[in-house]
Design goal:
Glycerol-3-phosphate (1)-acyltransferase, about 260 residues, 9 helices, globular, eight-stranded mixed sheet, about 15% strand
Length: about 260
């Protein structure tokens, strides 16, 4: 389990502060550039937009990671079925979970996130235009309409990425999973792929603005089939996925590592 850094590692003096400011500058400029280009590309070359959007998401995330001095490692990536609909469920410790997954996943993917993300300048507009799904939890009807888009993405062979804890863990401990991701997987009869992201809390803790260079490790577990499951099985599926992510966080899979 990622226990998080000691205070001395996080404080690090003026050099840590300067590195953090540099990372925020890189993130701001790259978000404005990539977000603007995505919006423009969609209107000028709509036929080629989908491929460009996927590539732009990965490139934007890679720029932010390089600015922060983050190295990526992904383990057992072959468990991610290519060109099939699937729900990827991951723990959530840091904003850098998103960047790490977006930069390293070798499949077509879309994130499901809070509606608040769509209100961020440049990023918010580009977020939904490239196919990521923003859910307004305060509006049940709007949330249902948003989730209907997920079926279209499954049919297109895309992976839907969700953080079933619902928010970033302040301690690094794996919190209880909400059932939404698993209801979605059962309704669409697509597999659930458990994933653990380790090391990102050391890079940036929840509630802290300091960014510390480090290594983010993504561990992919064996897919959990939903074939034949009904909504009555959602509790068991949720528990099985939670246990799988917990094992991945606490132990290294036997599969060989592939540096990213």
């Amino acid at each position: 389990m990622d226990a998080g850094p000691t205070p001395s590692v996080r404080q690090g003096g003026p050099l840590r502060a300067l590195r953090s400011i540099w990372t925020y500058l890189v993130a701001t400029v790259s978000t404005a550039y990539v977000g603007g280009s995505v919006i423009l590309y969609r209107y000028l070359w709509p036929g080629r937009f989908r491929r460009y959007a996927d590539r732009s998401t990965a490139e934007w995330s890679s720029l932010v990671l390089r600015g922060a001095g983050v190295r990526l490692v992904i383990e057992n990536a072959e468990q991610l079925g290519r060109d099939r609909g699937q729900v990827l469920v991951s723990n959530h410790q840091s904003w850098f979970d998103v960047f790490a997954l977006a930069a390293s996943l070798p499949v077509k993917f879309s994130f499901v996130g809070k509606k608040e993300l769509s209100r961020i300048p440049f990023l918010g507009q580009a977020w939904e235009k490239v196919g990521h799904i923003a859910i307004d939890r305060s509006d049940h009807k709007a949330a249902i309409e948003s989730l209907q888009k997920v079926d279209e993405q499954f049919r297109a062979g895309r992976t839907i990425v969700m953080f079933p804890e619902g928010t970033r863990s302040p301690t690094g401990e794996l919190a209880r999973f909400k059932k939404g991701a698993f209801v979605m997987a059962i309704k669409s009869q697509v597999p659930v792929v458990p994933v653990a992201v380790a090391g990102t809390r050391t890079i940036m803790e929840k509630g802290d603005w300091i960014i510390v260079p480090g290594t983010a490790t993504i561990r992919v577990g064996e897919p959990i089939s939903t074939k034949g499951l009904t909504l009555a099985d959602r509790g068991r599926l949720t528990s099985d996925a939670h246990a799988a992510v917990s094992r991945l966080l606490n132990g290294k899979p036997e599969a060989a590592c592939r540096p990213s």
